[in-house]
Amino acid sequence: MKDKLICSCERVYESTIREAVENGATSFDDLQKTTGLGRSCGNCRPLIERIIRDCGSLSDGAVK
Ligand code: FES
Question: Is the predicted pLDDT of residue 51 greater than 50, yes or no?
Fold first, then answer.
C-alpha cells in the first residue's frame, strides 16, 4: 500500500497516523501529542479527522 503524506508541514504520513489511532489516539489533539502533526498551518486537520473516523469504524467492528 502506498503511504500518503497527510501533514506536509511536519511530514507525517498516513501509516503513522493509523498506527497512533490503533495505539489509542482518539482525537486530533491526541495525534498532535503523539506524532507532532498539525502544529503549523492546520490544513491537514479535516483529513486527519477523517482517518480517525475511518479507523474507529474499522476497529470497533461496526456492521455497515
Ligand atoms: S499540513 Fe499539517 S500543519 Fe500544515
Answer: yes
Grid cell for residue 20: 497512533
Q: Which amino acid is at 25?
A: A
Task: Quote the number of domains for the chain.
Answer: 1
Question: What's the whole-number mean pLDDT along residues 26-48?
Answer: 96
Task: Select from 4, 5, 9, 48 the residue to mutate for testing ligand 1; criterion: most ligand atoms less than 8 Å from CB.
Answer: 9
Residue 64 is assigned to a structural domain of this protein: no
Q: Whose CA is nearest to atom 3 of ligand 1?
A: 38
Give the range of the structural domain holding residue 11, as residue numbers without chain letter.
Answer: 5-59
Q: Is the Cβ atom of 46 under 6 angstroms away from ligand 1? A: no
Q: What is the DSSP letter of 19?
A: H
Predicted structure pTM score: 0.83
CATH number for the domain harbouring residue 54? 1.10.10.1100
